[in-house]
Structures are given as C-alpha cells and as structure tokens.
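Contributing new records

If you add data, match the layout below exactly. Sequence lines come first and carry their own label; structure lines follow with theirs. Keep one chain per record. Anything else will be rejected by the validation script.
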Amino acid sequence: MTCIALAKGRKLILGGVEITHSHGLEGHSDADVLSHAIADALLGAIGAGDIGQHFPNTDESIRGMSSIDILKRVAALLHRRQSAGRERGCNRDY
C-alpha cells in the first residue's frame, strides 16, 4: 500500500478532475493517484514496467506534469506496441 501525503496549497486532482480543497496530494507530477493507478495497470498489462520507470521523480522535465498527459503517453505506448504486433503478424489486442 502506498501512502501519499496531503500538502496545503496543492491542487487535489483525482481522475483528471480538480476537487476544491485546501490540500492536495504531494507528488512530483500532479499526484493524481487514480490516473497513476490506471497508468500502472496498463503498463503492467503489456509487461512494460511501471509508472516510475517511465516517469521517474528524478526527471525535472516532468515535474508538475498532468497525470492525464501521463495517461496519453501510456496510451501512445500501447498503440505503438499494438501496431508493432500487427506488423509482425500478431493479432494480440491490448
């Protein structure tokens, strides 16, 4: 189980929706734990590691990134993998 701290003054975002609150979740990106869980599940389903491998908290270029943008990048990865499989004659759907 992962525990994410609340931080005063940060936006609280869940599933890409901003929720009015005085505190938000602390994190390198927007800390949208729902979107992160979905991204992790999708990456794991295709054997592509986890969100930390693709979006490490040591990468300053992605600090504050929207988790919806993370999901878009994961979706693009899934699409590339699916397209590559079709080119090799595999009919595997992700």
